[in-house]
Specification:
Elements (H helix, E strand, L loop, with lengths): L2 H13 L7 H12 L4 H11 L3 H10 L11 E6 L2 H5 L2 H12 L12 E6 L11 E3 L2 E3 L4 H9 L3
Parallel strand pairs: 1-2
Antiparallel strand pairs: 1-3, 3-4
Helix pairs in contact: 1-2, 1-3, 6-7
Bound molecules: FE2/S2 (inorganic) cluster.
Length: about 150
């Protein structure tokens, strides 16, 4: 872990200083800044907050929002909410996994893409939908999805 990462953790902890029950928001903030929560990050948070490592691990492994591995440069969120599910979302995910050669919710080896299956993205009229980074794509078909992926390669 480099000095700037330790500084980021230190500064984030200070934002929550003196408040109670802040472990989850603290972990969310650190993850937002560093991309994921590595073993080293968790140990550093433990060291600086005196919260036992086992407690932090318990939280990180319980909530699916936390990641312990690095994420790809492009985060693909495929919606599996009800509207999208009915509109064939599983076929869209399947096309993405096959195209990228990864397991469900995986990351490509070159760290270019991470895929997450998520609940409603809030644009059900566009079902089936996905987001890549901050951009939303709707009315997807497997073929359209593959074309979109190509633009990020
Ligand atoms: S269910 Fe997919 S956007 Fe709402």
């Amino acid at each position: 872990m480099n000095v700037s990462e330790i500084d980021i953790i230190d500064l984030t902890i200070r934002e929550f200083e003196g408040k109670k029950g802040v472990l989850i928001p603290l972990l969310q903030k650190v993850q937002e800044k560093l991309g994921f929560l590595s073993n080293k990050t968790i140990r550093e948070i433990s060291k600086q907050t005196s919260i036992p490592v086992s407690v932090i691990y318990g939280v990180v492994t319980f909530y699916t929002q936390f990641r312990t591995k690095p994420i790809g440069k492009n985060l693909i969120r495929v919606c599996h909410g009800t509207a999208c599910h009915v509109a064939n979302a599983p076929k869209i995910s399947e096309a993405i996994y096959t195209e990228l050669g990864i397991e469900p919710n995986g990351t490509t080896e070159d760290l270019k893409f991470t895929v997450e299956e998520v609940a409603c993205l809030g644009c059900c009229s566009l079902a089936p939908a996905m987001m890549i980074n901050e951009k939303t794509y709707g009315r997807l078909t497997p073929a359209k999805t593959r074309k979109i992926l190509d633009t990020y390669r």
